[in-house]
Amino acid sequence: MASVAIRGLKKAYGSVPVIHGVDIDIEDGEFVVLVGPSGCGKSTLLRMIAGLESISDGEITIDGRRVNDLEPKDRDIAMVFQNYALYPQMTVAQNMGFALELAGRRRAEIQAEIARAAEILSLTPLLDRKPAQLSGGQRQRVAIGRAIVRHPKVFLFDEPLSNLDAKLRVQMRSEIKALHRRLRATIVYVTHDQVEAMTMADRIVVMNGGRVEQIGQPLDLYDHPANLFVAQFIGSPAMNILPAVAVAPGQLRLSDGSVIAAPPGFPLRHGREIHYGLRPEDVRFGEGLPGHVIDVEPTGSETFLVVSVAGHEIMALAKERLMVAPGDPIQVALESPKAHLFDAKNGLRLRLPDAA
Amino acid sequence: MTLASRFFRQPGSAHLDPILVGLWISLIILAALWIAPFIFIVFTSLKSAAEVMGSSAFSPPADYAWENYSAAWQRGNFTTASFNSIIITAIKVPLGLFLSAMAAYALACVRMRWRKLFFVVVLFGTMIPFQVMLAPIFRQVNAFGLINTYPGIILPYLAFGVPYQVFILHGFFSAVPRELSEAARIDGASHFVIFRRIFLPISLPVLAALFILDFVATWNEFAMALVILQDSDMWTLPLGLMAFQSQFQSNYGQLNAAIVMTVLPAVIVYLIFQRYFVAGLVSGAVKE
């Protein structure tokens, strides 16, 4: 297993830059998830680590060795693709043994590796099947098996669960996590699904438009997003963002004119424009501003409410069952010590002076 | 419901579908039109001269005149002609297919400059009618001193076979998911290994189809062979058949026996390889 260091990495297709200088340090044995909306460059970044895309500028090192100009096979990595990319004419065993066979390993050795990987992934009864005879989950396990047998320094996963149905996805999620614990492997995992990122990662790299927005542990990103983008991307449903202006000390005026108290401790200049961010679970009911219910989505354990208040539609999450119907008037408290303030111009989160 | 009437209904419908009935009737008529000459040839090849004159064209032979075959074989010098046909086809067809497959792989999967230009140049070969090229090719082959030789006929055959095979295979290879060759690259495969171990096996149905088409075309090719193979010892079966026909035109039994013997190998190859037409070898490679 190995560490991966990415320094000032850039990628351009012709004159179109797609990665604008990315720095990431991945520690030995760490599970790092690259997450971001489609087109943010996360897959390109992964393919650059794999050696499937050339590097325009910057450097990638694996275990201290510069790999920029190495062929994929010489980088000591293994990759699992979204569409599995199994060799259709080969059996499961042949698929898993292909890399070892090409490396010229002895047959007995290859058999032993295949048997070990099949054991880990419960594929032993399927070793003689062809990919066409397998279900989606089984195929993805074979693809993972193909990676395991090589004992690579780094595992690369490119949206491996996106083609699976919801139930299987949850199951494979915990299987991959268990695999990570068992192999103590360094894993770089790409997904657009922030829930997947939150549940699996040791650390998350949030990317947007070819740049890294923030790197951090899942709950850290949730509690302390660096900027508006991360605040809205991490968490489902997303954080409510309300434009506001600082008026009298400690007070914010929302766009419809209603005034709420700012979270304590922020020295806000009069007239400063900010964005007020509030997670759905921090919205309280029964006091505060008047509004009305637009939609109710009970999930059983909790209730999602879409309410109209202060000229905005906001999403709220109530742990208790609320007996309300669309159209009902409701009092909504937007003030919360957990609210975040973001600079309206650059989107950065304002930090408390003593904490910063 | 009888077995026959099942074919004339839509699934789950109790009524006859007039369109289905019409389609079946057209199908049967067309099939009859196509099979009639074969029946005529096979029946006639087994009739004695007297019976050919005395019976209707489509009546089955009264006694089987197998001697037509041995006589035609000897008189037409079919031993030499078959040998030539087999040599030329056995070298040209696999070699041409292999070259086309490699070229198509390179054009579809190897990153290089001018790739599109190369592809267009190759495609240009499909646009030139073969007949237009007969005279220049004759001069070319003559200049190389290859008239009346196997290379003299095999090389032009290859040149004319490759473009359309590259065209078909390029389309097929381009449709193979990129991740498949990327996975193989990560597994340590070179381009040649990816070609041989991944692309050739999954394109078996296409290769089989091209093999049949090319085999039949090469086996039956007449015009180029006529121009380049002038010595009767170098003749292929179609040339032998033509010579036989001009000499023994009136001997219908033997003539049709000669035709059957010329066509039979192509039919056999077709029947052997057509089962590979069933596609589906790629299924399961990636999620569609």
UniProtKB/TrEMBL annotation, chain A:
Q: Could you confirm whether the keyword Hydrolase appears in this record?
A: no
* Positions of the ABC transporter domain: 4-234
Q: Which UniProt keywords apply?
A: ATP-binding, Nucleotide-binding, Transport
Which Gene Ontology BP terms does the record give? carbohydrate transport
- Which SMART domains does the entry mention? AAA
> Which is a Pfam family this sequence falls into?
ABC_tran
A Gene Ontology molecular function term of the record: ATP hydrolysis activity
According to the UniProt record, one GO cellular component term is: ATP-binding cassette (ABC) transporter complex, substrate-binding subunit-containing
The family classification in the record reads:
Belongs to the ABC transporter superfamily.
The name under which this protein is listed is: Carbohydrate ABC transporter ATP-binding protein, CUT1 family
Source species taxonomy: Bacteria, Pseudomonadati, Pseudomonadota, Alphaproteobacteria, Rhodobacterales
UniProtKB/TrEMBL annotation, chain B:
Q: How does it assemble?
A: The complex is composed of two ATP-binding proteins (UgpC), two transmembrane proteins (UgpA and UgpE) and a solute-binding protein (UgpB).
The UniProt keyword set, sorted, is: Cell inner membrane, Cell membrane, Membrane, Transmembrane, Transmembrane helix, Transport
Q: Which residues form the ABC transmembrane type-1 domain?
A: 82-273
Which cell locations does it reside in?
Cell inner membrane; Cell membrane
Identify the stretch annotated as signal peptide in this record: none
Query: Which Pfam families does this one have?
Result: BPD_transp_1
Look up and give the organism this protein is from.
Answer: Rubellimicrobium thermophilum DSM 16684
Q: Which superkingdom heads the taxonomic lineage of this protein's source?
A: Bacteria
Q: Record's InterPro entries?
A: MetI-like, MetI-like_sf
Q: What is its main location?
A: membrane
The transmembrane segments are 21-43, 86-110, 117-138, 150-173, 194-216, 255-273
User: What's the protein here called?
Assistant: sn-glycerol-3-phosphate transport system permease protein UgpE
Q: Which GO terms describe its cellular component?
A: plasma membrane
Q: How does the record classify its membrane topology?
A: Multi-pass membrane protein
Q: Which family does it belong to?
A: Belongs to the binding-protein-dependent transport system permease family.
Biological role stated in the UniProt entry? Part of the ABC transporter complex UgpBAEC involved in sn-glycerol-3-phosphate (G3P) import. Probably responsible for the translocation of the substrate across the membrane.
Q: Would you kindly state one Gene Ontology biological process term found in this protein's UniProt entry?
A: transmembrane transport
